[in-house]
Amino acid sequence: MVYAATDGTGASDVLLVLAAGSRLAEYVNNTVTQTQFYRSIWLDVSRRLAWLEDFAEADRAEAGRAAPERLGRGIQLENVSFRYPGSEKPVLEDISLDLPAGKVIALVGENGAGKSSLVKLLCRFYAPTAGTIRVDGTDLAALSSADWRARVSGAFQDFFRFEYPVYQSVGVGDLPRLDDPAATRTALVRAGAEDLVSGLPHGLDTQLGTAWEKGVDLSHGQWQKIALARGFVRDTPLLLVLDEPTSALDAEMEHALFERYAQAARDERQRDSGRITLLVSHRFSTIQMADLIVVLDGSRLVEYGTHEELVARRGQYHDLYSLQASSYRAGARR
Ligand SMILES: Nc1ncnc2c1ncn2[C@@H]1O[C@H](COP(=O)(O)OP(=O)(O)O)[C@@H](O)[C@H]1O
Ligand SMILES: [Mg+2]
């Protein structure tokens, strides 16, 4: 095509227009597809937004009872079922379950079994479609949601990267203590993330995120550790949920972390508050440490008990456990 630009007949102009013409068509085509695409996203987003507004409104309207100071009995689910708003598919069906105060409970099940959905109900991000969740006998729906959420802490597989200085990025885990470096430091220790911070140029004051001129970017695993620390800022949550918060760390690190955590969970202060720890993991080295294990499969509760009980039962837990144990052994031989 280059020669056309030099033949002096104006053909190059024609070529240019032709090129623009096909580009234009492509552009128009793309725009039409994108408009349809955006329209579908927009509809989806506005539906969610409308739901969120209603949800927030209902939340504001209710006064609610105060959350208990400590848990005596624990949390009980009675025939709880759940569908996401706007969806027909049940993701939890008729779940009855006792989460005793003071225990570390592991949720096990394949992807899509409903583990995270159950966690969300307990945090009261959603309300059950049917059935009741009771906190020391009181319907969770009757508690002030602000009060309940102030007593819930969590770290999740999907987390947000707060591009703040480190101490705030952790501190948002408990807003009243956003600027409390001592609280932040304790949380980082609980998350096993002290080394991460001592390696940063300005320690706790290091600005995180590449949006800032001197901001430091972290690896995915490091960001996840910050998110984990954020879940550990509160000292006396009644419910602590750890929903695959260490998926970016290796199995050994996760094991070491939970071992330390389980140790701490048995100390007096935590026993006193009756805290329930709900943890979701695919690693049996972690799951085994829990006091009780709940197995979900395709939206239903299939097994519940201690590691030993479930292994002896030779059901689904036993099969999952044996599968992972044998693949570890095979890995070790290699
Ligand atoms: N926000 C949502 N809206 C609609 N369906 C969802 C939403 N989140 C999860 N689901 C669906 O709920 C089911 C259970 O998902 P989830 O609770 O995330 O399972 P798990 O944590 O065990 O992998 C899946 O079929 C998933 O596709
Ligand atoms: Mg999940």
Describe it:
- By secondary structure, the protein is an alpha/beta fold.
- Helices cover 44% and strands 18% of the residues.
- A hairpin with a 2-residue loop joins strand 4 and strand 5.
- The chain folds into three domains: 3-61; 67-151 and 236-334, Rossmann fold, CATH 3.40.50; 158-235, no CATH class.
- It contains twelve helices and ten strands.
- Helix 5 (181-190) packs across helix 7 and helix 11 crosses helix 12 (316-333).
- The strands form two sheets. The protein has a six-stranded mixed beta sheet with strand order 6-7-8-3-9-10, sandwiched between helices.
- Bound molecules: adenosine-5'-diphosphate (ADP) and magnesium ion.
- Magnesium ion is lined by residues 115-116, 243.
In short:
It contains 12 helices and 10 strands.
Question: Any key phrases for this structure?
Answer:
10 strands, disordered N terminus, binds adenosine-5'-diphosphate, Rossmann fold, 3 domains, globular, 334 residues, binds magnesium ion, four-stranded antiparallel beta sheet, six-stranded mixed beta sheet, alpha/beta
Helical residue percent? 40-55%
Order of helices and strands: HEEEHEEHEHHHHEHHEHEEHH
**Spatial ordering of strands, largest sheet:** 6-7-8-3-9-10
Determine the N-to-C terminus distance.
Answer: 58 Å
So, the CATH homologous superfamily of the largest domain?
Answer: P-loop containing nucleotide triphosphate hydrolases
CATH C-level class of the largest domain: Alpha Beta
Detail the poorly predicted runs.
1-20
What class do helices, strands and sheet pairing give? alpha/beta
What ligand molecules are bound, each kind once?
adenosine-5'-diphosphate, magnesium ion
